[in-house]
Amino acid sequence: MKPFKEINKMKYPKILIIIVTWDKEEYVLNLLESIETLIYEKEHFDILLIDNASTDNTVLRVSKEYPKVKLICNKENLGGTGGFNTGLKWASEQPDGKYDYLWLLDNDVVVNKHALIELVNLLEQNRDAAIAGSSMMQLDYPWRINEIGSYYNKANGSLIFNFHFMPVEKWRGTSMEELLKLPHDLSDFIPDFKPYIDVDYVAAASMLVRADVAKKAGIWNDFFIHFDDVEWCLRIGAMGYRVLASCRSIIWHLSSAAKIPTWVLYYDTRNSLSVMKKHGDKGYLIDKAVNYELKKAFYYALIGRLELANIIVDGVDDFANGITGKRNIKLPAMLNHREQHYSELPFMDIKVKKILIPWTVNMIATGLQEILVRVKLQRPELQIDFMKVSGMPEIIQFPKAHFIVISSKRFIRYINYLKLRDKYDLILQSEYQRIIGLSLIGGKIMFISNTNYCIRNSPKFFELCLLYFRKILTRWKIYGLTGRPKGFFMKIVGLSKSYIFTK
Asked: Which pLDDT does position 501 carry in this prediction?
C-alpha cells in the first residue's frame, strides 16, 4: 500500500456517503462536522442523509447547518435496514458511473480525517476486493480497539471481533480532537501485522463498497436492525469478492459494552439465526444455536428480567416461522436516575428499610454514592449492606460501609443467598455484570447502569415454569424446521437436555 505521504497524488474516485439516523441530533451533527475535516476533495463526494422520521430537530438543523447534504425523510422509522435500503435504492437509480463507491456510516460515529481516503486507497489497490471497512475504536474509551473487522463462525453463528478491547497504550491520555487529526496505523501496535487484513465482515458503522457490486448484490434483508450488514458482507463474499479491514482508516463508535440489554435482544436472536440458516453450517448446528439462545432466555428469567427472556423466545419463534422486519415490542420504561431528584428514587420509599449492594455495582460510575449519602442523611434508619465474596479485598465505596461475606464456592454461595432470603427489601444488580443467584434472595431488584435503572420483582416459580414450557415448544418447532425426527425418542432427548440445563 502507498504510505501516507503519497496518498494525495492519487485520482479521487466519486463517493456517495450514506448516513442513516433516527433521533440522534447531536451525534449526526458531530459526524457531519468530522466529515468536513476529511482529506478528500469535497467536489468528489456527496452526502445522503436518510432520516427515519426523527422526532427531534435533526432535519431542521442539518438543513440549516449543512445545506449541501441531500436529505431523504422516511415517513416512519424503518430501522437501520430500511434506512440503508432507502439509500442503496437511491444510489442504484443514479446514472451508471456517477459514483464509484458508497460509504455507509452509522450516525453515532466520528471519523478520522484520513478514514475515507485510506479505504479508497485500499480498494483501488486491491481490485479483487469489493468491501473495505474501518478499524473501530470505542468512543467512550478512545484508546481502546472495538474491532478490526470480524470473522463469522459458521458452526454457531457468532462473530469473532479482531482485537476486541485491545488497548493502544500510546493513545491513552490523547484528546479526541488530536486523534481525529493525526494519521494512524494500528498495525504499528500489533506484532507481525500488516495495514489491512481479509475478514468475513466489517460493520456498516464505516463500510466502503464498490457501487457496481452493491447494485449487483441488491438491498439488505429485511432485518430492521442488526446482522443486516453481516448478511450483506457474507453475501458479497459468496459472490467471489474479498472483504478487507483497514488498520489505517479509523473511526470511533459507542462501544457495545456501554449499551445495556433491551428490545434489540429480539432482533439479535432472530436475525443471527436467519443469517446462520443461510450462511452457516446446516442441520443440528442450528439446533445448537437455538439451544444457546433459549438458555440465554432462561438466564434472563432467573435474574429477574422476564420481559427480556420472553422477547428472546419471541425471536426464536419468529425465526422458526420465517417472520422478518419490524416487530412491535413493548417493554417497561427505563428511568434515568441522574435526571431524577434523589427524593424521587426508590431509596426514599419508607417500605424500603434494608438495601443490599453487591461488589459488581460501581458506586462512583453510577452516581449512587452521593445519592445514597444524601438518602442516609434523610433516613438514618435505612440499613445499607455491601456484599463481597470471601477472599476478595474490600472495595470500599461508601462512608462507614458494612460488609456481608459470601462463599467463593458456587454451591455454598447459592446456599448463602437462600439464607438471606426475604431479609432485604431492595437488591441492586449491575447491568454490566449481573449475578445470577441474587434473585434467590427475593424482594425487589433494581437493575442499574451508569445512567438508567428499572425495578423488577424476583422471578416466581410459576413464571419460570411457564417460560420453561415455552422453551420446550419453541425447540420442538426448530426440530421440524431443520428436518430432525419428531418421534418419541427425540422428544425425550430434548426434554432431558432442558432438564440438565436447568439443574
From this structure: 39
Name the band, by pLDDT with cuts 50, 70 and 90, for residue 8: very low
pLDDT per residue over 208-233, tens digit each? 999 999 999 999 999 999 999 999 99
Looking only at the bridges linking them, the beta strands covering 206-210 and 145-147 are unpaired
> Which pLDDT band holds residue 140 (cuts at 50, 70, 90)?
confident
What is the DSSP secondary-structure string of 2-40?
A: --HHHHTTS----EEEEEEESS-HHHHHHHHHHHHT-SS
pLDDT at residue 176 greater than cutoff 90: no
Question: For residues 478 and 316, is the Cβ–Cβ distance under 8 A?
Answer: yes
Report the 10 Å Cβ neighbour count for 183. 16
Task: State the alpha helices, DSSP H only, in 280-385.
Answer: 284-303, 306-320, 368-378
Across 93-116, b (16+ Cβ under 10 Å) vs e yields eeeeeebbbbbbbbbbbbbbbbbb
pLDDT of the residue at 482: 53
Please say if the pLDDT value at position 5 is more than 90: no
Residue whose C-alpha is closest to residue 267's, from 218, 232, 316, 231? 316
Interior angle at CA 207, CA 202 and CA 212, nearest 5: 115
Q: What is the DSSP letter of 206?
A: E
Q: What is the mean pLDDT of the chain?
A: 90
Task: List, in order of start, the domains of the chain with CATH numbers.
Answer: 13-256 (3.90.550.60), 264-332+461-502 (no CATH), 338-450 (3.40.50)
The grid coordinates of residue 176 equal 479526541
Q: Is the pLDDT of residue 498 over 70?
A: no
Of residues 278, 196, 266, the one with CA closest to residue 234:
278
DSSP 340-355: S-GGGSGGG-TT--EE
Q: What is the CA radius of gyration of the chain?
A: 25
Phi/psi at 489 (nearest 5 deg)?
-60, -45
User: Are the C-beta atoms of residues 129 and 209 closer than 8 Å to each other?
Assistant: no
